[in-house]
Structure formats: C-alpha cells, structure tokens
Specification:
Layout lengths: L9 H9 L5 H5 L5 E7 L10 E14 L5 E8 L3 E5 L15 E9 L2 E9 L20 E5 L8 H10 L6 E3 L13 E3 L1 H4 L4 H31 L10 H11 L5 H14 L2
Parallel strand pairs: 1-2, 4-6
Antiparallel strand pairs: 1-7, 2-3, 2-5, 3-4, 5-6, 8-9
Helix pairs in contact: 5-7
Amino acid sequence: MDGKKNLITPSLKKKLNTANLINLYDIITYLPFRLQKIEPFSNFNTNSETTYLYTGKLTNISHRKSSRPFLVLDFTGSTNLTAYLFSIAKFTMATLKVGQEYQLLVTQKDNLWSIKRYSPYVENKIKHDSFTLGKAQQSDYLVPVYKKIGEMKHADFNKLHKILPENSYNLNLEGILPKNSILPTTINIKSIHKPSSLKDFNNGLSQWISLKAFLKICTISYKEYINNNKQAKISKFDREYLNNLTKTLNYKLSTTQISTIKDLVGEITY
C-alpha cells in the first residue's frame, strides 16, 4: 500500500481503525458477502430479478405521503421509466433536480421499478472494469458487496479496492505450506475483490477457501498434538468450520473444493 498511501484519506484511515482493519492482510481478507450482477437496462427480462443500470433525464417528481412516504420519479432516456424511491431522507429532495441526468440501479417486482441507488450522470467515454455509479458504461458488471463493519460501509470498501496496487492481493505461502503441497505457494485473491468474470471470482474464492481450510486443519492438528503429547490423527475435517465459512460468503463448496480439502487433510495427517 506504500505507493498509494497518499490516496488513503485521514477519514478513510479512521474508518479502517474503527473496523479493526489495521494492516493490508486484514483489508484484503475481509471478503464480500455476495456478488451483485448488474446488467444494462436494455437487457431487461421480465422473469429476471437482476439489478439493471438505467441512464435518463429526470422529468417529474411526485411525493406520495403515507405511513411510509415515497417518491415517484419519471425519467426519459432510450426508454421512458417511472420508478419508485422508497428509501428517502431529509436531504433526498436536495439531491434530485428535474432536468438533470441520473444513473440508477433498479430492480423490478410486481411490475414496479424500485430504485436501489442513484447518482448524477457524468458522461465517461473511457471504459473501466470497475463499477462507479454515475460514470458507468452500459455494460455487464460484477460488483462485490461488503457488509458494514465499524464505520466502514460498502462504498468505503469499493473506494479502497480501487486504489490498492495490483500486487497487494498476493499471499506468499512459501515456508508455511509443506513441500509438494497441492496448494500453490502464492495465492492471489484479487479476483475476489475485482472479478473480471464469475469464473474468475470463483477461482479466487476456491483458492482462498482451500487455504483457510488447510490452516484451520493445521491448527486443530497442532492443538491435538500439544494436548495429547503425541502425533495427532485427524479422521475427519472440520465440517462446521467450513459450513460457517461458506455461509458467510453466501456460496457453497463445490465437489472439487471438497475433494481438495480431503486431499489437504491427507497431507497433514500423520
């Protein structure tokens, strides 16, 4: 992070401290809990629950008062759109101006378009792989979504991973793994935070899960060795640990991953 140190603002540094993310390892191993797929609005499918990216000019605002006040917003663009904003605050009206262009993230349910997020639109002709609402191209995106921890919100993690150097995501395992291990001595988890495709994301996640399982099993083995003062025997891997790990990531272990973990158990079983 040395080359980008000046890009981490005092405010962001303070938030990292509240989240107890003190060093680079803490940051890169705080993983997203899900992956959000975003598609251009032109790809709309009535049977889909996908989040869509829409760009258009705001033409009208209607404020509906009820037990739960909401806004009805009309837009014109390549397709005209009427969308509902249910999450409103005191400052919301000040951020919406008729005649201004916006980019929206919208989903459809019961034939109603709901606005998840919005931002004033600034035309950007340079294509970027990362997603920034307000400057995004009409393309497909995979966006890692992070749970709030301390004062660090999803948007803060998104900003942070945009400024981290590419080599920040390399985990050097030389000297940690046994010789002839089936795991590589270097694991790069960049694809978890900056996926170029779903396959890319799953490959990075698979490596990370295998490494975590290996380290956990090693820890269990060592504790048993100390407690019994003899070589530890492991007859089964820690299913509860693996279940909890994958549950927090909202993904299930594949057959290949389970097979890999069983091989890892074999490597450290005496």
